[in-house]
Design brief:
The structure is a single chain. This protein has one helix at residues 19-33; strands at 35-36, 58-59, 64-70, 76-82. The chain has 89 residues and is of the alpha+beta class. It has a two-stranded antiparallel ribbon. Strands 3-4 form a two-stranded antiparallel sheet. It is 17% helix and 20% strand. A hairpin with a 5-residue loop joins strand 3 (64-70) and strand 4 (76-82). It has one domain (19-87): Thiolase/Chalcone synthase (Peroxisomal Thiolase, Chain A, domain 1, 3-Layer(aba) Sandwich), CATH 3.40.47.10. The longest helix has 15 residues, at 19-33.
């Protein structure tokens, strides 16, 4: 990874109907607010893995958010949502 690059993973589980749309809305709102939402109902992983669970909203500057949606029967999609260049600092 490049210097200064930090990756975060937020897990969202919603009902099969509309889960992709809710994940996309959450990604857009995260960029707008510059805040990573807390991961709900996640137990802390094994400390030896070196993975941190975002337990409460985290304010951080973001330029891009990746949204993955995996469906049954191979209906999979990934979308990168980016801030407009005029808003980038």
């Amino acid at each position: 990874m490049g210097a200064g690059l930090r990756l975060f993973c937020v897990l969202i589980h919603a009902s099969p109907e509309g889960s992709e749309e809710s994940a996309l809305i959450l990604a857009v709102e995260s960029l707008r607010r510059q805040e990573i939402p807390a991961t709900l109902r996640a137990t802390p992983p094994d400390d030896s893995l070196g993975v941190a669970v975002v337990g409460e909203p985290l304010r951080i500057g973001m330029q891009h958010v990746l949204v993955n949606a995996f469906g049954f029967g191979g209906s999979n999609v990934s979308v990168v949502v980016s801030r407009p260049s005029a808003e980038r600092s």
